[in-house]
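Anyone? Bumping this.
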Amino acid sequence: MSPAIFVDALQNELQSIQYGHSPAELYDPIRYIMSLGGKRMRPLMTLMATYLFTDDWQKAVRPALAVEVFHNFTLMHDDIMDQAPLRRNQPTVHEKWNGNVAILSGDVMLVNAYQLLLSVEGDKLKPALERFSRTAAEVCEGQQMDMNFETRWDVTEGEYIDMIRLKTSVLLGYALELGGLIAGAGETTRQHLYEGGMNIGVGFQLKDDLLDVYGDPAKFGKQVGGDIIANKKTFLLIEALQQAQGSVREELTDWLTKTTFDKAEKVQAVTAIYDQLGIRQLTESRITGYFDRGFANFDQVDADPDRKKLLIQFAHQLVERES
Amino acid sequence: MSPAIFVDALQNELQSIQYGHSPAELYDPIRYIMSLGGKRMRPLMTLMATYLFTDDWQKAVRPALAVEVFHNFTLMHDDIMDQAPLRRNQPTVHEKWNGNVAILSGDVMLVNAYQLLLSVEGDKLKPALERFSRTAAEVCEGQQMDMNFETRWDVTEGEYIDMIRLKTSVLLGYALELGGLIAGAGETTRQHLYEGGMNIGVGFQLKDDLLDVYGDPAKFGKQVGGDIIANKKTFLLIEALQQAQGSVREELTDWLTKTTFDKAEKVQAVTAIYDQLGIRQLTESRITGYFDRGFANFDQVDADPDRKKLLIQFAHQLVERES
């Protein structure tokens, strides 16, 4: 078994989804955002988790896509809230159409996600929906916390980790848990999968924050330093704000409050502050910590070692990724 | 049995719902919009439909509130799209907080609606969720059509009826169908309830359009003529635009395109055009037609006549209402 087979199955099923056609302003944006691509890592995780316990992983394809459609719904609405002009280098839905279209298309996508999840069979449907609903509410909580952080300069590491747990990690945890549930895995096993996904998810988001500053421009794909330019409250900035003292603190707050500046100069200066405070090493050590906890969770999952290898290799790719 | 007992049960259950607390910006707006009141007619319809077939209507209380929470979610998002400052004479959520809060709180409300619906028991859960999801998507389709109509002057009666069917009526149909489903009514019976709710719903919306122009100011509760002042594409305006010829048409389009005008004068002038074209009688005859069709649908429902009386009396109140 290779992950490519899972990816193909997901792509085929994605193309078969009938989102609806009329009015066009409601359904075209859904096809548009789903066509922008992405790694499809969440549904892939669901299939890998199902395959841990059964050969019949195909029955998880449609429910797995519920997680992907839900994820893209959050992107569509988050982009409105963040006034983001681009998503995967293409215009966002609220830019290409307008804000109202993005609100309403997103609403239908959330409904679509539930419709896809209704393909979970028998007595597994209710727990799948209950856990999905709880997770969906938590993702919204994380997004609201993220917005609340924008106007605060005293966010602690603990608060930041709580936020990314909710905004990003619970959905990765759910993706794995759902796969286990569909395959008939017991509650303890599902809990290990969920915790593993959560921990990998936190490491994944911290890696995202790290790459934005220390990524190789040739490999990163996006502009290195974008978060610094935008004053985005990443793990790195939060740690720097917690640690910086005296003249370093003054220099940092100076860069954060400047309204006109040379972008390259700001990126270079803030990166130098991070270097001075040892933020890179701290972030790398946290990333390793969360990924290690995730691997320890996966160790507890009672499944065929060869099949587990697929999941573990996938998680390793997430630690080692450079873009 | 009196409807007051249903209303009390709904109010008690509404107060027991735990929407969540943190972050406050996410959950306070939900409590706020749910506290603004409203007639709770949708969940009341669900309970009346359940009571048609069983004494155990209490098991429908929580699912019924799914319909109410969903309805209030649509109000929260529609108010953003319509830039409405007030809802039930109180500031709308996007005015009291901001647009982002209204988007995200609304998203969680949609999830909450599904969570409430998960209280439907056994093998009724899946059809309840499937039909709810289809209905929810249709309500979004109706809202998008309504927005599309804003920039068009050639909307036909058929298009308008299609729009209000989707935006308003399908949810009233679903409210009744859900009650029947929970009570164990068969598919044909549920279909009659759904169609009845749909037809009553179209009549209800047309009555809304009519009251805005011809309501008794002492009883109406809102400003009479509000739709005329705002150039809202109601049934009355659409009919007038379809029928007006020559100088009457010129006068009407003149009022519709004026940017400065005396409000009372515009209301009086457009109402006079409606009078001249017989729009009031036409609208009243359509309202009667849809309500009669709804009553005919209810006639087909095989249930205890005394219990049906409750539902029929309720529908009569909707025809005869003056506010």
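Late reply, but here is one note on the structure posted above: Chain B touches chain A through 35 residues (CB under 8 Å).
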